[in-house]
Amino acid sequence: MTARILILTVALFSLGMASGCAMLNKCPWWGTTPPKPPVVLAPNASLDDVINAVNNNNAQKRTFVANDARINIDGVPVSLNSNIAWEYPRKLRVVGGTVLSSREFDVGSNDELFWVWIKQDPRNAIYFSRHDQYEFSPARDSFQMDPYWLIESMGMTVFQPSPNEQHRLVDRTPEGHWKIATTRRTPAGTYTKYTTVDGKTACVLMQELVNPAGRRVAYATSLNHALDTTTGITYPETVDMHFSMQDQQMTMRLFMGRVQFNQSSPFLADAFTRPNYPGTTLVDISGQPGNPIIQQVSGSIP
Fold first, then answer.
1. Any idea which fold 3-296 has?
2. Residue 9: which of 143, 144, 102 has the closest Cα?
3. How does strand 281-284 pair with strand 125-130?
């Protein structure tokens, strides 16, 4: 994979580009503009208060569907239609394309593995890896992040009460926002995530990921938030995502559109199953001994 393909792969996995509702039982619906989030933190709130407010909001999220989302890519002159499906904790599926092509992208994750397929990739491959094997994969040198970060960047941020994660207050901004540092011990070394939280609404405003070498490899900024009146959940309406990998940078802006949380049976049975498109090559990027690195799938691309 070239550096450009790697960057596009990570960005597409985190954001998802799709049109159509093949994986969803429900298609877009329209309503009035959702209200803004309420104030939930007192002026004298503690760090524990802030962490609990963020966790309590995101703990309510079990599934969401965003069928009328849009995405702008830096350097691309048009917005692209998108729909996103997510289920706790790390199931993600995005399939679709543009008005000129019925199938351009298929990116997703389930409890076992994640995958990426980009039709314009000259190798015509489906890249995949088991989550546990990816932790030790040489591909981390290029991806510089794990799938959990990609889901977090869309608003599913949780401060884990785990021995592998330690949280501390770094700063209070002039606006009264909280900046919290979280150290994460992984097989690839200790990563640090910086999370900026609104001092009144507890909405997550910015997330930054720093690798063990001290380099910021990705960050996401949530420009505004909305309140889902049905569930009481707050969520980002617009997210800017920035990636710096192999000395190349990419910026994308995601407009979430109308988001539906915790709907009854919102997905089809195979929504989070890795596809096998005819004519493509399966490439296991984990690099683990004994794994089939390349497997040809016969037939033609749909």
1. outer membrane lipoprotein receptor (LolB), chain A (2.50.20)
2. 143
3. parallel
Dist CA 299 CA 302 (whole Å): 9
pLDDT in tens, the chain (302 residues): 444 444 444 444 444 333 444 445 444 444 567 799 999 999 999 999 999 999 999 999 999 998 888 877 776 666 777 778 999 988 998 765 676 766 677 888 999 999 988 777 888 899 898 988 887 877 776 665 566 777 888 888 999 888 888 999 999 999 999 999 999 888 878 989 999 999 999 999 999 999 888 988 889 999 899 999 999 999 999 999 887 654 567 788 888 888 999 988 778 888 899 998 888 999 888 876 555 444 544 443 33
Q: What token pair was written down for 176?
A: 């009264």
Distance CA 20, CA 85 (A): 12
Q: Is the bond leading into 89 cis (omega within 30 degrees of zero)?
A: yes
- Which amino acid, one-letter code, is at 195? T
In terms of Cα–Cα distance, which of 156, 183, 2, 162 is closest to 88? Answer: 156
Cross-strand pairs, 91: 87
CA distance 91 to 233: 19
Contact 11, 199 (CB under 8 A): no
